[in-house]
Amino acid sequence: MTSSLTPSDAGALPVLLSPKPSLTYRLVSNLLVFPVFRGLFRGRTEGNHHVPMQGPVVVVANHGSHLDPPLLGHALGRPVAFMAKAELFAIPLLGPIIRACGAYPVKRGASDREAIRTATARLDEGWATGVFLDGTRQRDGRVNQPMPGAALLAARSGAPLLPVAIINSHRALGPGQNRFRPVPIVLRIGAPIPAPASRRKPDLEATTLELQRRINALLDQGC
Q1: What is the pLDDT of residues 89-119, one digit of tens each?
Q2: Which of 7-11, 152-156, 178-182 has the lowest mean pLDDT?
Q3: Whether 43 contacts 168, CB under 8 Å
Q4: In terms of Cα–Cα distance, which of 113, 131, 114, 6 is closest to 56?
Q5: Nearest Cα to 198, choosing from 135, 129, 151?
Q6: Are 112 and 119 in contact (CB under 8 A)?
Q7: Is 211 left (phi over 0), alpha (psi -120 to 50) or beta?
Q8: Which residues contact 133 (CB under 8 A, 6 or more apart)?
Q9: pTM (predicted TM-score)
Q10: Cα 95 from Cα 179, distance rounded (Å)
């Protein structure tokens, strides 16, 4: 964890800085993700001014495609860390690449509590940490059955939550599809919302439902 104080901040709390993008991250962005996003899918992002560029933030999105993690991880202007199965990190070439891009390992069969602890540790390091609100891909690309994990992460860390709508990825390469469809993909970013007031179930549920409402509202704006 790194921190920085300006001369006028003497005695103030240090500012938690976010990890800088690695060379591997920049290469993957410039040579792979953005050519596919901008070229094949005529992709664009909206609302980037809402993205906190320093400090921890829980990035919360809908999930309709395997395309979502790389797009969300490279289109916000700062790296976004995601959970990945620990076995992937042992694969030559792939392991170092996904680690350099911010992925962190979670053992197969790990408890939800262990996964939450691992993600909280990333937030404590100043990372933006990505969470798909449903947990699994949805055929219609919407948030249908939101889970409380994102709200719990924010409550544990105090990090704000950033709602993001990934529009059309479920049409480009959704569940059951085995080839790309070159439809336009848009990442629409909403205003951050504060962490829940506590870890109590009613507070987590209220924040989770608000995230669902906001993301689906961003989706409803269309392309």
Answers
A1: 888 877 887 777 777 787 766 567 778 888 8
A2: 7-11
A3: no
A4: 131
A5: 151
A6: no
A7: alpha
A8: 60, 61, 62, 63, 143, 146, 147, 150, 208, 211, 212, 215
A9: 0.86
A10: 25
Answer whether 17's CB lies under 8 Å from 54's CB: yes
Structure tokens at 134: 């449903």
Condensed to tens digits (0 to 9), the pLDDT of residues 17-66 reads 777 888 888 888 888 889 999 999 999 999 999 999 999 999 999 999 98
Q: Are 65 and 170 in contact (CB under 8 A)?
A: yes
